[in-house]
Structure formats: structure tokens, C-alpha cells
Amino acid sequence: MDKDRVEGSAKNVKGSVKESAGKAIGDSKLEAEGKMDKAKGKVQNVIGGIKDTLRGKRA
């Protein structure tokens, strides 16, 4: 598994926690940061998946 997939998943989880906390306490800035972290994590996870696929085809 590519390190981008691991880091992307971690960012996604972190973003979910931030977003939930922001909603719970009514902090729209924290909620927005969480949504951005989730989006970044998803993109990084996709990039890692592509790298894994390319490595598999070369092997």
C-alpha cells in the first residue's frame, strides 16, 4: 500500500472529527476546516491508489 493512501485515510478521519466537532459546538470555521481536510485526504488517497495500480502493472 502506498504511503499516500495511508496519509490520505488519516487526513480523511481527522477531517471527519473536525467537521463533527465544529457542528457540535457551532464553530463554522472548524467545520469548514474539517471538510477541507476530508477533501484533501480523499484526493491523496486516490493518488495513492493510482500509484499502487501503476506499480502492479509494472511488476
From TrEMBL:
Biased composition range(s): Basic and acidic residues: 16-26
Domain CsbD-like: 4-55
Domain of life per record: Bacteria
InterPro entries with a match to the protein in the record: CsbD, YjbJ_sf
Disordered: annotated segments: 1-26
Family, as annotated: Belongs to the UPF0337 (CsbD) family.
Protein name: CsbD family protein
Biological source species: Microvirga brassicacearum
